[in-house]
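Could someone model s-citryldethia Coenzyme A with this protein?
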Amino acid sequence: MAEQAELILEGKSYHLPVVTGTENEKAIDIKNLRDLTGYITLDSGYKNTGATLSSITFLDGEQGILRYRGYPIEQLAERSDFVEVAYLLIYGELPTKQQLDQFSENIKMHTLIHEDMRRFYSAFPTFAHPMGVVSSVTCALSTFYPESLNPHRGEEKINLTITRLLAKFPTIAAWAYKNSVGHPVVYPKNKLGYVENFLNMMFSMPSDDYEIDPVIVNALDKLLILHADHEQNCSTSTVRLAGSSQANLYSSIAAGITALWGPLHGGANQEVIEMLDRIKEEGGSLDKWIAKAKDKNDPFRLMGFGHRVYKNFDPRAKIIKKACDDVLNRLGIKDPVLEIAKKLEEVALNDEYFIERKLYPNVDFYSGIIYRAMGIPKDMFTVLFAVGRLPGWIAQWKEMTANKEPIGRPRQIYIGPKVRDYVNIADR
Ligand code: SDX
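Reply:
Sure, complex below.
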């Protein structure tokens, strides 16, 4: 007989089906709970609530495991590249050479954004945070491609919409940077690879072409792979929730970009480097910052530390920490905040407060140090996170749409005033 959970409420016994995943994760299926019992469940922040059945990414927070479509992140970071990982996440299998060449070619054919979209950039103030620009322009893609508005327009139209977004996003992102520094935009060059093209659009100047450094290209490609998907995190859940109303891909992804911007989520990578810089400016003493992080009355948190799922280590942080040393050494860069970050990690991991709460460095703790070594300004760090996460968001939206999942609409428990009659303002 299928495994069941028994729930006893007000003396009555109810049996609910248990769902077991590929890696033996267990869930109690409560889709009929309210009809059966009149009760709902309550779980602020969805810390114990599964939203869907998904075949895309597997995380094991206790073991520090991360796999995309079954492939360990360590192998993909070492042996694959970002465009191939994007194909794997979106279409479910590693591509053949012919499939990968066609996928890359299709992307190259769509890297330009409509010339009229340049007016959006000039409308933003130069001090606009690039995340606000990128989320706005991404949503605006839906106004230039009306065929994208109906997510059920068949495989071919969906693939064209997906290809356009993968192709144009680096252009949208790089132009947000150029807008922020008042430099002329650089158009995509189709002879360049995906990451090279992005770097060229970021750093080429009319006065001199950007010299593409393979050390930087490889490091950024690896970082994008490490950010490519992470199952039902805040921004991905936002993409799925927006898409569940049958909103189009571009606007659903724009919603995800907005959620990623928060300092508790993707915005943490910028917060980490600002925190490390402050520690450096104040002489590098860590005691004050560790004490602040532990002080319940102080809103300060050790940015780049802690994770909802990983309770031993974030496998991505391990890979990025190692890449930090490699990239800075090969670029001949000495960034004192790298030593501060390593010392902070060592002190925190030997402190009862962090040990007890299982707080370890996460993906954002070291990534900003590499981005800075590449010459990427800190308010573009979260945009880089979004460039990496894009294929994951697309894969999750595509899975949710293909499975025709119902519109997301959580319930609540009302704790406001009981019924009362309206009182005219003269009588209040
Ligand atoms: C990402 O979900 C994903 O997969 C996200 C992500 C992805 O790839 O999509 O991995 C990317 O968002 C990584 C996280 C980046 N954010 C930060 O680095 C910000 C700092 N970290 C936190 O604010 C926090 O750790 C979260 C938001 C990441 C997780 O928060 P939870 O799971 O809601 O845990 P919590 O806030 O309930 O904390 C549990 C305890 C609390 O103490 P007590 O109330 O039990 O005494 O740990 C403490 C917290 O105060 N705590 C921290 C801390 N993080 C948690 N204390 C100091 N510094 C921290 N960083």
